[in-house]
Amino acid sequence: MTKRKVEIFTAGCPVCEDVVARVKGLQCPNCEIKIHDMNKGQGTAEARSYGVTALPAIAIDGKLLDCCRHAPISDDDLKASGIGQPI
What we know:
Blueprint: E1 4-10, H1 14-26, E2 31-37, H2 44-50, E3 57-60, E4 63-64, H3 75-80
C-alpha cells in the first residue's frame, strides 16, 4: 500500500503543537507523519529544499503546501516597515 508522506516542521511552540495535533487528528491509515523539530536541528536540509521560511509548515509527498509558503523576510522589507529609520 502506498503511503502519503506528511512532514511537519515545528519549533515546538503552542501554535506548532496545535498544527501537529490537527494533522494527527485528520490522519488516515494512508498517512505517514514525520515531525521535524527545528529546535533540535531535525529536518534542516528538508526545510531548506522545500523553501520553508516560517513555522509551522507542512509538506506532503515532497511539496510544501501553498498555505505554508511565505516569502523570506528581506532587509528591504524591514527597512520599508521603518526599522532602522528615525521616528
